[in-house]
Amino acid sequence: MKLDLQRKRILELVAHCDPPTDLKKASLACGKNHAYLHQFINRGTPRKLPEDTRHALARHLGVDEAVLRPEREASVPAPMRSAGPGTAQPPFGGVGPSGHAGLVAVPEVRVSASAGGGANLEHEPGGNDWYFDAGWLRHELRATARDLRVISIDGDSMEPVLCSGDKVMIDLSRTAPSPPGIFVLHDGIGLVAKQLEYIPNSDPPRVLIRSENPRYQTYERTVEEVNIVGRVIWFARSL
Asked: What is the pTM for the complete model shown?
């Protein structure tokens, strides 16, 4: 049978879901038999996806249920951010920049990048979720959602590159200060966002920690003295 937009969208979401899934797993997650979604998509049975099943499928795929509505009922939510914790609102009407509807959530955590010594981004949830196209994350940022967190910048040490109130996305899997870049790290005093660069041939190995704002001094730490949380790979700023 010819697939309508709703059925095509389900196939795209299943294909680009992170963590990976398939029609069988998705059917079981909806409380249905393993062939339910296969029959719905390829045989047109049932003709219409029940509302409770659509909501369960959306939860399994990590998207707003509006993305899975039939074409004539589909809404076009605008914000990239959710309205609050647990309220998913995908951008671009549910279709990401790559042309696929494979949206994934990146959690925002409460800590700021210049406050709270020893904060652990893995265990301090409580902000909103941000939704991004999985293909864009994978191909443009070379990242996967499970390794990403969004936090706020507090202070002016990284101005004009990063300003107080900016939201930054951190890749927790990228903790090596090479090549140089902006990292979130605990420098022995607090959690900070700084330009970080490995000092070649240093013994013991040392890193240069630099602010963009010339009012703040550059300083060094040994690799043992710093805890690199992750590399900053994206930011957002309110106008």
From this structure: 0.56
